Amino acid sequence: MGRPALKQLKRSCQLYQLSWNAVAGGEVLQILKDPDLVDIYGPVLLEAVARNDVNSIKWLLDNFPKLERISDYCVLDEAARWGYLNLLDCFQGLLSTPGFVPDTSQTRRKKGLQTYSFGSPVNVASGDVYRNVLDDRHWGHSSWDSTDAMDDAAANGYLETVQWLHANRTEGCTTDAMDCAAANGHLDVVKWLQANRSEGITTKAMDGAAANGHLHVVKWLHEHSSAGCTVNAMEWAAEHGHLSVVKWLHANKSEGCTSTAVKESLQNSHLAVASWLKHTFPQLKPQCVKLSSDVKVSFPVVLFIQEHYAELPTQELFEKCNL
Known about the structure:
Blueprint: H1 3-11, H2 14-24, H3 41-50, H4 54-62, E1 70-71, H5 72-81, H6 85-92, E2 100-101, H7 148-155, H8 159-168, H9 175-183, H10 187-196, H11 203-211, H12 215-224, H13 231-239, H14 243-252, H15 259-267, H16 271-280, H17 295-308, H18 314-320
Parallel strand pairs: 1-2
């Protein structure tokens, strides 16, 4: 492939996909030796780490351009988020080589909990939520939080990885570690962090666990933590149809909910939840309800609204159902 063609691929972002496909197929990435392509080493290395492709990682590190530098935390975090202890051991011994520089930047990326969508539960263990973050990593600018590795390993439930980082690294974690581990149902990780780390948790832990239907985690947090929750706990549980969680929160917590819980349960066709909320909180009335485009899904919701919330414009809802 000629240099003009490579430059065109680079401009169109197709070269990233081409290189990632080469990593996926275990091919030798000789294409990356072109000096015009030095800045794609980082993303391609991350892809190789995500796939635990030791051969490609070795080739990339052996051929790493002197002009390019990767923050050590970048590769450590990528290996940790997937729970690859073999790569963590490998990178731990390489961090003093010219290919890596320590993160000394004072500009830190505030990750918060954006990766783990409490409002919309996701299967973080599948890795799908990470496929869109590579472009946000600014190679050579050390933009990752040093605590990302343990935070992400905890969020994905890799207890052994969390323990390895605790024993071999000094960066530690943030409250995101326990918050996200709880939200994703990894109670063993939550318990270990509670016993061995001092960062603690926030209300996002119980809110997230409730949203994802992890009642056993909600109960444990209630008994072993004073962080508590917010109205989001019951509202998000209602939104995703976790009636047992909604009932438990009502019986054991005082935060309650707003009419948003009713609205979201209806919009997601969780009629059992909506019915319970109607009888338990008759004063909570949704102002509007957006229907699904699926008539079979929407029609029972319209009938429920017509029976229990006559003040809502049911005629308009019927028309939206094309009935």
